[in-house]
């Protein structure tokens, strides 16, 4: 089974993976340079990082066909560290980031993705689509009409080329777009921005670089806050991207292996002079849309990137930015979940609010972690509020009028504890009170505290209180935190009476 899976990951889609790898490599170049400039480091740092991370993650990652490299979200977190302490501390922070991510993998923190609701995933996807589109606007500002014409032509090729018989299904349209627009720009001598205008490309292979910093507690105190932030954002973006690629390809992935894989890749990047990175939703979607499915596509993207920037840099510099802008606009349009807009009226209000909040916070702050955190928090609050409404208590009085039985149904926790307490009549004069908990579950200390108050108040009024039907899980937490069956605690609460 393992041998078959490995063979499928590497050799199951050779042509599609190779072509997709070329497209992704071409699209990675300007982004890696741009992210390096964001972090205020040499373009080599971003390019080497993208090569290292993509190559290593192809072997150790948990999601075949997903692209990891230097990203804008990670670059933004590095700016202050680079300004105040320099590149060497960034490399050290990158190594520590990898270690923290490996630890997260062994702690199985990938399972936390199960707590991210569909509304948050949709909001995350939509926010990234918007951010990808916004990132292209500077390339379309203050330029001649040739740039707009070439971008429009690029979009036309991307969307119309697949309709050509036979050849349209064999060659990825984004690759055709890049090659065609480059040929036109060179042939006509158009004065439009090119990849070469973004910065100098490296002309040597990466070499081993052990960070030149003092390995002391003081250094750890400097880099740890940055490494922790990088580790969290990197894992969050990687796991969210992994989930999206799972849906696009209708396959599963190993989230905990992905955590460890991202950590190993970042350690490799730091040792070869690169900055920390993570999964890239835009490039991953380009890969999938271009036919990439296996680990071979990720490996090819990394290897082709290195070959292109080191050995074919003179040609790569000629690629017009209009071609890459057209590809990224295609990614933005394809990434956005248009059904989420069409279904706003049919989806529950709570779903729409958490989805829109994720979009607004992410786009306004450019902080993916904060946007997802807000979305998850709202989704959890809405869920807790909804579940609390299903908790109710009814009662019945025995024929002789001496026993009142309260039937509790639903989940009792912090949000429904007050509702539970208010369901009892403490002024009714009865000899016996039975609280039937067969269809109830007590989840936390707030629920146990509410039960204690009810029992103690009823006993204070002279009733003999009996609890029946407490399930094992609820009984455990009640026994641990409850006081209603501890005479010394009850006397203390009742003032010693």
Describe the structure.
The chain has 497 residues and is α/β, with parallel strands linked by helices. It has two domains: 8-344, no CATH class; 390-493, 2-Layer Sandwich (Transcription Regulator spoIIAA), CATH 3.30.750. It has 22 helices and six strands. The strands form two sheets. It has a four-stranded mixed beta sheet. Strands 1-2 form a two-stranded antiparallel ribbon. Strand 5, helix 20 (445-460) and strand 6 (464-468) form a beta-alpha-beta unit. The longest helix has 33 residues, at 217-249. The protein starts with a helix and ends with a helix.
Keywords:
disordered C terminus; Transcription Regulator spoIIAA; alpha/beta; two-stranded antiparallel ribbon; 497 residues; elongated; 6 strands; 22 helices
The neighbouring-strand order within the major sheet is 3-4-5-6
What's the quaternary structure here?
single chain
Low-confidence stretches: 488-497
The figure for the number of domains is 2
* Helix content, binned percent: 55-70%
* Global structural class: alpha/beta
Roughly what fraction of the amino acids lie in strands? 5-15%
Head-to-tail CA distance between termini: 70 Å
Shape: elongated
Number of strands: 6
Major beta sheet summary: 4 strands, mixed
**What is the rounded Rg?**
29 Å
Order of helices and strands: HHHEHHHHHHHHEHHHHHHHEEHEHEHH
Can you give the mean pLDDT?
A: 86
The number of helical runs is 22
């Amino acid at each position: 089974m393992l041998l078959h899976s490995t063979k499928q990951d590497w050799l199951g889609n050779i042509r599609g993976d190779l072509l997709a790898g070329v497209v992704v490599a071409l699209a990675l170049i300007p982004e890696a340079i741009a992210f390096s400039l964001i972090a205020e480091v040499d373009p080599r740092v971003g390019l080497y990082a993208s090569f290292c991370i993509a190559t290593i993650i192809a072997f150790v990652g948990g999601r075949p066909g997903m692209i990891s490299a230097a990203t804008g979200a990670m670059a933004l977190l590095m700016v202050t560290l680079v300004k105040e302490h320099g590149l060497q501390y960034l490399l050290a922070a990158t190594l520590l980031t990898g270690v923290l991510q490996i630890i997260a993998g062994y702690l199985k923190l990938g399972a936390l993705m199960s707590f991210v609701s569909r509304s948050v995933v949709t909001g995350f996807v939509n926010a990234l689509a918007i951010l990808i589109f916004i990132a292209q606007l500077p390339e379309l500002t203050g330029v001649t009409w040739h740039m707009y014409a070439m971008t429009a032509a690029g979009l036309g090729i991307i969307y119309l080329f697949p309709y050509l018989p036979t050849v349209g299904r064999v060659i990825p349209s984004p690759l055709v777009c890049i090659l065609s627009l480059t040929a036109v720009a060179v042939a006509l001598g158009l004065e439009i921005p090119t990849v070469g205008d973004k910065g100098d490309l490296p002309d040597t292979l990466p070499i081993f670089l052990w960070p030149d910093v003092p390995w002391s507690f003081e250094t750890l105190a400097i880099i740890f806050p940055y490494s922790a932030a990088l580790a969290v954002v990197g894992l969050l973006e990687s796991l969210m991207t992994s989930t999206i690629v799972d849906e696009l390809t209708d396959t599963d992935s190993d989230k905990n292996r992905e955590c460890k894989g991202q950590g190993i890749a970042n350690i490799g990047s730091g040792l070869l002079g690169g900055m920390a990175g993570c999964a890239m939703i835009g490039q991953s979607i380009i890969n999938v849309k271009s036919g990439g499915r296996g680990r071979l596509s990720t490996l090819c993207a990394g290897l082709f990137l290195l070959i292109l920037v080191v050995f074919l840099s003179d040609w790569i510099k000629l690629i017009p930015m209009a071609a890459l802008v057209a590809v990224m606009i295609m990614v933005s349009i394809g990434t956005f979940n248009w059904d989420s807009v069409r279904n706003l009226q049919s989806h529950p209000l709570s779903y729409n609010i958490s989805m829109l909040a994720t979009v607004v916070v992410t786009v306004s702050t450019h902080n993916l972690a904060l946007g997802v955190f807000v979305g998850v928090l709202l989704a959890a609050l809405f869920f807790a509020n909804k579940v609390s409404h299903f908790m109710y208590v009814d009662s019945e009085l025995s024929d002789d009028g001496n026993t009142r039985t309260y039937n509790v149904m639903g989940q009792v926790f912090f949000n429904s504890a007050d509702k539970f307490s208010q369901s009892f009549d403490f002024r009714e004069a009865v000899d016996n009170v039975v609280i039937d908990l067969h269809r109830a579950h007590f989840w936390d200390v707030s629920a146990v505290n509410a039960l204690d108050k009810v029992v103690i108040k009823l006993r204070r009024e002279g009733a003999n209180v009996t609890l029946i039907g407490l399930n094992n899980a609820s009984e455990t937490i009640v026994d641990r935190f409850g006081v209603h069956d501890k005479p010394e605690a009850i006397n203390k609460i009742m003032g010693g009476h």
